[in-house]
Amino acid sequence: MERMQTNLFPVWKPQNLSSGDVVKTIKSKLNFNKVGHCGTLDPFAEGILLIVTGKETANSIKYMSETKTYKAVISLGQQTDTLDNTGIPIKSYKVDDEKFSKDFFKNILSSFEGSILQRPPAFSAKKINGIRLYKLARQDIFVHLKPVEIFIEKINFINYDKKDLTIEVICEKGTYIRQLGLDIAKSIGTVGHLKSLVRTKVGLYDFKNSLSLEDIDNWNY
């Protein structure tokens, strides 16, 4: 990659790495003193993660406020403690496929558009008394927070196949897609968890104009 000066790195985070891992990689490879990310992306998920360095870290809130787009696959019929495919199954319900249709799903999904209330999941990066909830949850300490107002611009139905509902979510900051997946499943009449999650876009950044960790490794900064 060509030599360039920047304080913003739109990185395509791979699965099985935390947002903190990406920050550490950039900090050690490019020798920055100040590095941060703008919006946590779960380790099981992949997609756009905005990294800011130096003076640009002061603008983190601006980047966090950018509209985000996700592609999510909700596996219906089973709920896990983490609400994703890394968790332990805790509930199972029957999935009544007979009533499902494209219009049925569209009606369900549209009910989650606009300003809605959402309860942050127990496994999340949200802090209480300075401690992230997922650290407490891993110790079997589950804190149930009050619902907060979020804004979902649009939820598009993509596909349904063998208990897997694939959707696209366009939303503002503070939206937990794992919790949204469970809430949608409950509206359908069952439970569910995220089988996969991809953050396809943040503001103007997507896969086409993002960097991979290999790009970072090969960068002569």
Topology:
Elements: E1 8-13, H1 19-30, E2 35-37, E3 46-53, H2 60-64, E4 68-76, E5 78-80, E6 89-92, H3 102-110, E7 114-118, E8 127-128, E9 131-132, H4 133-137, E10 148-161, E11 164-171, H5 177-188, E12 192-202, E13 205-206, H6 213-217
Parallel strand pairs: 3-12
Antiparallel strand pairs: 1-3, 2-3, 4-11, 4-12, 5-6, 7-10, 8-9, 10-11, 12-13
Q: What's this entry about, in short?
A:
The chain has 221 residues and is an alpha+beta fold.
Which key phrases capture this entry?
nine-stranded mixed sheet, 22% helix, single chain, 221 residues, 13 strands, alpha+beta, Pseudouridine synthase, two-stranded antiparallel sheet
Describe the protein:
The structure is a single chain. The protein is an alpha+beta fold and 221 residues long. The chain has two domains: 8-65 and 203-217, no CATH class; 68-201, Pseudouridine synthase (2-Layer Sandwich). 22% of the residues lie in helices and 35% in strands. It has six helices and 13 strands. The protein has helices spanning 19-30, 60-64, 102-110, 133-137, 177-188, 213-217; strands at 8-13, 35-37, 46-53, 68-76, 78-80, 89-92, 114-118, 127-128, 131-132, 148-161, 164-171, 192-202, 205-206. The strands form three sheets. Strands 1, 2, 3, 4, 7, 10, 11, 12 and 13 form a nine-stranded mixed sheet that branches. The longest helix is centred in the N-terminal third of the chain and has 12 residues, at 19-30. The relative contact order is 0.24.
